[in-house]
Amino acid sequence: MTDTPAPARDYRDTVFLPKTDFPMKAGLAAKEPAILERWAKLGIYDRLREQRLGRERFILHDGPPYANGDIHMGHAMNKVLKDIIVRSQSLMGKDAPYVPGWDCHGLPIEWKVEEAYRAKKLNKDDVPVDQFRAECRAYAEKWVAVQKGEFERLGVMGDWADPYLTMKYEAEATIVGELLKFAESGQLYRGAKPVMWSPVEKTALAEAEVEYEDIVSTQIDVAFEIVDAPNAPELVGAHAVIWTTTPWTIPVNQALSYGPEINYVAVKISHEDDRTFLVAEALVQTFIQRFKPVDLENTGATAGIFWEGKGSQLEGATARHPMHALGGFFAKPRPFLPGSFVTTDAGTGLVHMSPDHGEDDFELCKQYGIDPVFAVDGAGMYRADWAWLGGQGSVINKKFVAADGQICTDLRATGALLAASDDFKHSYPHSWRSKAKVIFRATPQWFIPMDRSDTESPSRLREGSGEGSAANAALDASPPPTPPASGRGAEDGNGATLREIALDAIAATTWIPARAENRITSMVQGRPDWVISRQRAWGVPIALFVDRATGQYLNDPAVNARIVEAFRENGADAWYADGHQALLGPDYNLADYEVVKDILDVWFDSGCTHVFTVEARYGEGTRANLYLEGSDQHRGWFQSSLLESCGTRGRAPYDAVLTHGFALDGQGRKMSKSLGNVVDPLKIIGESGADILRMWVASTDYFDDVKIGKEVLATASDAYRKLRNTFRYMLGALEGFDDSERVAVSDMPELERYVLHRLGMIDTELRQAAESYEFNRYTRLLTDFANEDLSAFFFDIRKDSLYCDATGDVKRRAYRTVLDVLFHALVRYAAPVLCFTAEEVWQSRFPNDDSSVHYLEWPSLPEVEDGVAIGKKWTQIRALRETVTEAIEPMRREKTVRSSLEAEVTIRSVSPLAPNEAAELAEAFIVAKVTPGDSVTVTRTDFHKCGRCWRHLPEVTVDGELCDRCEGVVAHA
Question: Which of 471, 783, 818, 904 is a good FRET partner for 795, with 20 to 30 A between their CA atoms?
Fold first, then answer.
């Protein structure tokens, strides 16, 4: 009979393994809605306001998205970033309310309602205005509700029960009240200036409502015969040549402009055409290249100079319009005017002037008493009584303005068209809503002036000297100066003009990133007067009465007060009711006044949100700590809010402004339905959960444009998974921990004190990152600490103590004490970013129907007296540990050792290691033995393996027997 060795005992039941119900698999898409429901029952937002009452307040004022359609990735990125900031400020102990809001008026919503009309073959203009406005309101209400749910699903915490809406009656009353402040202080005038106009939407547009796209336009060269030239009589009969890419402006031409210092020549081209052409000397050859194709038989065109001179010699000259035979407007001589904007960069060095359709044209012609004629109507058609092309158009119709279109055909018939081709590539403004081209068009609009400073009464309107049926258009080409608004402080800084006060306010504001200051400064420095009127129906009306006799708007505080109160009671619809006489009161007769029908630019609406949200809720004079939007808002909400507040309060409505980039697809392309590369945030939430999306937002360098796609999300998911597993490990390792087990810092082993020291360093950096809104750095600090300092180092070393030391052992108790500190710190750090997961983690350890991780404040950490010295020592040990690990790895690959526990290591040391030092290093390196030597070398140990802790130790004589420690633990189990 053969002796059979007894089977080795299984010691697994004596090892203290982590225990937790916290799942490794997140299942966020299913869990998060339940967490949201729990928060709603708790009333978490209101509870936080109660808890933080009296604390320092931090206000992030929400920029309003349009209540129009489902949210897109830009919305998600913006709202998540705001929520992370608000939650982090709350974590730092501040009262950080967040009031979400919506832009409810304006073209985007009107456009959608009109689309429904067009589908039913209805004309919006045939619908009563009150009915149309009611449908717009209903449409906005629908999408506010939809987007509210979508934003909440992202985990965004705020006052969702009482958001601000620009269409609320109180908001509309405040908006009109702010407008009337501008009117009362004289910072308002009506004038006819060229503004960007959408013939499709039939309204003026702000710069922020326009986007630029590359297009191919028709370019033409047109000859104007010179009929008088007092300083160069030999030019009479010559033809001044202009070049333009907007042929449709030729029917509205009123002058020609030259550069006084430019050298011009009159040339005859070797060509069947015997005319002489006046162009800039520097542009003769490029003109000939365009002109040659007019006569395909002559391919050797050259120029013979007939006259040469400075542009200043053209002063007093006149030419006649190519269509002068039509008489009337077209028969008037076209003067030559000196223009500082004329260059020889392109064209002919002569510019045709149409004050209706260009800013430079308008300003120059204004100086010489030439007014707009309003020939092009709101739909882009020439008005019916216009002598040339009357009733035709639209001027943005490519066929109409093409080289073979009606305009060029008529010019060609007169012999004035010298060259025409449909091949000029350039960037051109389009309406961001309809995607159609816009035009510059002079129309009577209401403006807030940027450069008034002196005291004078509100501006008057004067009649324009237009042609035909447009002769009565109001025109104020030179708005008078205006007094500063009440409360404006111009004694410090530049002065009292709106532009100067705004520039001072920009300089006093913190811009994040800093380069944003230069961008908005240049925009405000160069911007024209603010066009605040729109020819639409859905919005806050410009509630003014204009005296029919004087052209002056009524400026009566009592009337204005009645208007504001009517809006407060019945909303802006009050202006469309039959109550204007009541608003005027007994001192005025409605028959004497024009009731202004234009509505306000929606940027004025949103520019007032600081008044009816921040000031209304937190006190007059209160301003936001932070505005945060995409970088496009330098010309949008940031600027309209700045101008509104500077015009009425003499300061910016914000202390700091943060701008983020745009969300692009995984290849860095702009998202577009036509490209099929749109990444839907709602789909990501439905599949992976909002916390994955939040992790992505926090991990990006959002000050610039950011990418999102499968690979990017996979990276965010992996970072999330590792952090989740860190929490899972701590929850399991802390099972059953209570205060009786806690160990004082001074009694802890050095490794524990080192980790607490590292935590303190990370804590400082995290707070700095949160205070500077650098959540890319914040998230990286958090995840790197969890992965590198904890999982790969501290947890790795101490798992032996956790699993195998006696439960009362000081080292094990110290480890669990530090784990408790780490848990309380890390769950708080993670809460602003991973709001759902942090709640799940907290409730897993401290289940309580009335508690939330988001009630907690920034952790208070224990001090480590000798932390700096310990930090230096363990930084060296960690570096040496990496060297040792690298030295062991080849032996693992060759299977000389199966784990580092089987390795003995020699390290470079000039002196022998003390026993406790050698044991400390062996524990840190997770090896069998460490000895001093000349270099790092590794050999396989001869020590036998403990059957319980699996360490190779000298006291174990046979593999499977117990080491001294394990024997004691098992004996007392």
Answer: 904
